[in-house]
Amino acid sequence: MRVPDGALPTRPGAAITLTFLLQPLDEPWEPDPATDATDERPLDITVRMDASSAEVSPSLMHLRLTDARGTAPGDFRITPTSAGPVKLFIDVLRRADGAVIQELTAELPALDAEDLEPSR
């Protein structure tokens, strides 16, 4: 998940665009043509995102995983509805049968109350 520079901390009503990109992180990975996705037989995934104290749009995104390069990037727009931190809940599902491949959580820090400008 990528957050644009300067987008944090979160503020109520200020939308942030988060970019989701599924990529291998650790060891180099080569797909097994018999069982893994390939260019000829891609794996369609659904990314489902929810958040505490924020609106998420879209909440579902369909992406295609073909090989070790991962997926193309997909953007989610998060709009905080309160002054607290925003907790993100991200599920990556195999689209064909809905099986959960990965569950992720992350927290976006909020602007401290003393940093808020007084309303006029």
Overview of this protein structure:
The chain is 0% helix and 41% strand. It has 120 residues and is mainly beta. A 4-stranded antiparallel β-sheet has the order 4-2-6-7, with no helix packed on it. Residues 114-120 have low confidence and may be disordered.
Count helical runs. Answer: 0
Strand content: 35-45%
Write the H/E string, N to C.
EEEEEEE
- Class inferred from helices and paired strands: mainly beta
> Which stretches are poorly predicted, pLDDT < 50 over at least 5 residues?
114-120
Q: What can be said about the biggest beta sheet?
A: 4 strands, antiparallel
Rounded to the nearest angstrom, the distance between the terminal CA atoms is 36 Å
Q: Report the helical percentage.
A: under 10%
What number is the mean pLDDT? 83
Largest beta sheet: strand ordering: 4-2-6-7
- What overall geometry do the principal axes of the alpha carbons give? elongated
Strands, count: 7
Q: Evaluate the radius of gyration.
A: 17 Å
Summarize this structure briefly.
Helices cover 0% and strands 41% of the residues.
List keywords for this structure.
single chain, 120 residues, mainly beta, three-stranded antiparallel β-sheet, 7 strands, elongated, disordered C terminus
